[in-house]
Amino acid sequence: MGREREAPQKPQHQEVVSYTVEQLVAVNPYNPDILPDLENYVNEQVSSLTYSLDANLCLLRLYQFEPERMSTQIVARILIKALMAMPAPDFGLCLLLIPERVQMEEQFKTLIVLSHYLETGRFRQFWDEAAKNRHIVEAVPGFEQAIQTYAIHLLSLTYQKVPRSMLAEACMWQAINIEGLSLDKFLEQQVSSCGWTLEKGHGQVQLIVLSSNEFNHPELKKNTADIIPLEHVTRIFPILG
Asked: How far apart are CA 18 and CA 127, in angstroms?
């Protein structure tokens, strides 16, 4: 009896598993092999108007271990994206991972100054400084719009209503860097989308009424000290009985 022929073995194909950048960061954040992926991801965030603080912090940490591979262009983009995330403290978190010698470069000194102006609400100085350094901040699309959003947020924490003249002279257009017809159009958008209202004050002064929140209307803030949890009340019943 002849020997049975074995069926030819099918070539085994190794399954290629692809991971997202977030998964790479979660699985092995200190693997230097993922550094190019993280750099590419920063550029992707810039082009797609997205943001990932965790991935960017991971890249900055890897740069600490391999400083010769650091790209100052990538670092600058990370810091600009962090500025755009204000009022989140992302800029400070990123700065802690950047060597002091790198921070002393002109572009990073400029970004640090811009951060200080934003944190202290000095929008006039911020826009003046940003205008002098457009080649830095305009490398990331959406920068101006993100800062305008932050400025509006800051104003809404402080004011209930403000005269248009006050905004134009010292606060609003300096805060969001627009005036004239552009400011009119912007106000229309805020009225329709954010609940702002316009009203006439004394002497036909136009007042801008900002959206209500627990900061500009303290009465809206819940006093948790006056709220007794239900489980505490149920414990009292047996004692009263």
From this structure: 43
**pLDDT for 156-186, tens place per residue?**
887 777 666 555 543 444 556 666 677 777 7
Residue whose tokens read 């006039």: 124
Judge whether 32 and 66 are in contact, CB under 8 Å.
Answer: yes
Q: Structure pTM? A: 0.74
The torsion angle over the Cα atoms of residues 92, 95, 97 and 99, rounded to 10 degrees, is -150
| 206 token code pair | 């136009």
Q: At what angle do helices 72-84 and 106-119 cross, to 10 degrees?
A: 10
Q: How far apart are CA 6 and CA 19, in angstroms?
A: 38
Contact 167, 210 (CB under 8 A): no
Minimal CA–CA distance to 160: which of 211, 218, 220?
211
- pLDDT per residue as tens digits for the range 79-113: 999 999 999 999 999 999 999 999 999 999 999 99
Beta bridge partners of 210: none
Of 68, 71, 39, which is closest to residue 56 (Cα–Cα)?
Answer: 39
Query: pLDDT per residue over 18-70, tens digit each?
Result: 678 888 888 889 999 999 999 999 999 999 999 999 999 999 999 999 999 99
Query: What is the signed CA dihedral for 214, 219, 225, 230, rounded to 10 degrees?
Result: -90
Residue showing tokens 């947020």: 153
First to last CA, the chain: 95
Over its C-alpha atoms, the chain yields an Rg (Å, rounded) of 27
